[in-house]
């Protein structure tokens, strides 16, 4: 797969094959039982001795495991299937001139004046911007 367009098609195919419904929403144990945990729906590893979720008993939500991860080929990619690159100045932007399999994010530390210049330069060079 040395052809970049063919590689991009393959990545997009892989991304489409992974559906959100296939991966469960990992919630903290007993997040719905106590009000103080209500807004803490983020994952926390169950550590109690008799915790049924830790013991992976049936009827309890699944634990986070490596098997639920995305394939290596598409891990960390933009939803479009392109490789995201953060650009902080014009020199870095110009170095991406010939690349077609990347999508550019302008760093949050770049001010408005330089950002506007970078957006116009990216359009001129034909570079795709994600936040421009």
Mean pLDDT: 86
Order of helices and strands: HEHEH
Distance between the termini: 31 Å
The Rg value, from CA coordinates, equals 21 Å
Helix content: 25-40%
Oligomeric status of the shown chains?
A: single chain
Q: What strand order characterises the main sheet?
A: 1-2
User: Which consecutive residue ranges, at least 5 long each, have pLDDT under 50?
Assistant: none
Query: How many individual domains?
Result: 2
Q: Quick one: how many beta strands?
A: 2
Number of helices: 3
What is the beta-strand fraction? 5-15%
Query: What would you call the structural class?
Result: alpha+beta
Walk me through this protein's architecture:
By secondary structure, the protein is an alpha+beta fold. The chain has two domains: 23-69, no CATH class; 71-132, no CATH class. Helices cover 25% and strands 8% of the residues. The chain contains three helices and two strands. The protein has helices spanning 4-17, 90-94, 112-125; strands spanning 83-87, 102-106. Strands 1-2 form a two-stranded parallel sheet. The two termini are 31 Å apart. The mean pLDDT is 86.
Index terms:
8% strand; 2 strands; 2 domains; 132 residues; 3 helices; elongated
